[in-house]
Design a protein that fits this description.
Residues 341-350 have a biased composition (Gly residues). By secondary structure, this protein is mainly α. It has helices at residues 2-8, 25-37, 52-64, 66-85, 93-108, 115-128, 135-143, 145-160, 173-187, 194-203, 206-213, 256-265, 276-287, 296-310, 322-329, 358-368, 371-382, 390-399, 402-418, 426-465.
Amino acid sequence: MALDEVWRGLDGVEALSGPQGGPLRRTVKLILDPLVIRPVQHPLCAGTVLCADGVTLLTSLVLAHSDALRACADWFTVLKQVRRALRITEGNAQDLYFQRCFELATVHGTPGLDGRARAEATLREIHDSTGGRTTTALKAHVTEPNRLVELTALLDLAWRRRPLSDYGARDLSSALTELLEASTLARDGDPADAGPLLDELIEDQVGTHRGIALWRSHPADGADDLGLTVHTCPQRPDLGASASTANLGLPFDRTVYERVFTVLQGSIDRTDLPGIPELVTTEISRSCSPWGLLDESLRVTAAAGCELALGLSPIGAPFPSPRANSRAALGHGADARAGGMTAGSEGGGTAPDSGPSRAHEVVNSRWRREAYVLQARRYAVHVVDGATGPLAAVAAELHTPWRPYLRRLWVRLHGRDVREMPVIEPGELWDLLDGVARSVILDHRARVKQALTSMGEHAAAEARAS
């Protein structure tokens, strides 16, 4: 709310503002946080609730960049005008141009007589980097009649050839939790022997086995319980021919088109990606593979992330949670390791009952310190059943934190898989898993902040009306 207040005191930034006058979410995400406030460099500005010194510092930072922000808004207006003139429709203008506009504002100030020429050069630079890998080309590729028949047959074949075995939903949970523990220690410089453990789990295809298990129905911790599909068992993906970032399906329910579409939309430079035909055919194979991933190290990362996620409890009971106890009562999985290695007493079954791992303690303790979590806990106590709205949605997600966590983790792993970026080191694995947790926390924080701002504006409007 402090940011909202100082922003409303600026003039000439309407192009970066919402209908109510506050900064757009993308303005905060793409410009203010990384380029102006820089909370990593200014910890006083990093919290959800700022102290007096934090408010003063945040205000001074925004005001110090006020000229650049006004020029940024002017550049964005010019770029949108030139974009329309060039009949460019590819991508979201805010995602593609906000940071480039701030760069133009910092280097050149407000647009001058050569503003339209600079804007056109910037647009051509951005959009020429696609190398023909556009959503328009994607749609044309998958809808061409003869190719549509060919790709559908390929999809049917890949789905029929899935490896199906009777693995348990939590096979080798102890080994994966051990990997989490060792990875956090390795990241902090402890000489834990995490590298050989990661290599062993990759060699034994533990991630593949856990992914295969998610193709079957389970009383608990199945793909539907994890928030990866709306179905009891994942269904054969459709080829698809349209997508909207505001209305994407859950990870295992996405069409091949949606999966490739999100990769294209999330790529600043698409020339490092394969061509559209290869992207589509590879994605067909990937969508019919365990976890919807091809690389084994990423599958192991997904399985380890699943173990981490199922032990998260930002507002719930201490580990093991009541949900964990109910899972334990349902029994364990069967043999999971390749080559006959078992998931019994050696390391399989449900999460250990000895207490939380260090990885769980790190993430849970950080999450529980969030002011919005304390507010959500109070909200959950007093809210009536069936309540709706942004605060109710956040409160609900805090009761099932593994779902938003695993959805976001899958998106990141999918992007790495497309770009052939395996996980090599245990420290890298932990950075990835911990980064997803931080991302979920920041997303919740932003949604709560926006909800409180809207509630405050509504209350102020009612007060003025009365």
